[in-house]
Design goal:
With 174 residues, the protein is mainly α. The chain is 57% helix and 3% strand. The protein has helices at residues 9-18, 26-32, 41-46, 58-61, 67-79, 83-96, 101-108, 122-125, 129-150, 163-173, and strands at 22-24, 51-53. Strands 1-2 form a two-stranded parallel sheet. The chain is globular. 25% of the residues are buried.
Length: 174
């Protein structure tokens, strides 16, 4: 469920750096582990972890015919998530999914696999380019900071391509 990362900031930071997807089921967590308002999901999301909302045992923990919609609507209401937040979380879910390339391309656009705003089709994801660009820039600033502290460029394999690499892919595709 990923919620125990809240007890280990080092592991949480490694998940951020590697952009490993974490699917969190807050309603299930409430029944099994902790109060809804103490769930770390909104904190993880605001910190830029690759998180999505999911269901767990819907017949046991949910009260509607649409358990995933239930997770999203309660999360939005309880944590004050905006429409943009919800769209970004849904986008993360598609990116984390095991759907093949063509399905993801159909849902998010032909360059969905790029992490900068070059890979964001706003009309499909409904996530503003400014949000995607912010996440992208902060991620790379964090890695650049570590490289500066360590004094060795390239010491850490980035989970995201750099801007120049993405530009080259776009130029090749077009």
């Amino acid at each position: 469920h990923g919620i125990n990362m809240r007890h280990n900031p080092a592991i949480e930071f490694l998940y951020y750096l590697t952009q490993i997807g974490v699917a969190v089921s807050p309603l299930s967590n409430t029944y099994l582990f902790l109060d809804y308002m103490n769930n770390p999901f909104p904190l993880f999301f605001s910190r830029g972890l690759n998180v999505s909302l999911s269901t767990d045992d819907p017949l046991q923990f949910h009260h509607t015919q649409e358990p995933l919609i239930e997770e999203y609507s309660i999360a939005a209401k309880q944590w004050g998530l905006s429409t943009t937040d919800m769209c970004e979380i849904a986008r993360n879910s598609v990116l984390q999914s095991g759907y093949d390339h063509n399905v993801k391309k159909g849902w998010l656009g032909r360059l969905y696999f790029l992490n900068s705003s070059l890979g964001n089709n706003v009309t499909m994801s409904h996530v503003p380019d400014s949000r995607i660009a912010y996440r992208f820039e902060v991620y790379h600033d964090e890695i650049n900071f570590f490289e500066q502290v360590v004094g060795q460029k390239g010491w850490f394999k980035r989970a995201q391509l750099q801007k120049e690499e993405e530009d080259a892919i776009v130029a090749e595709v077009e």
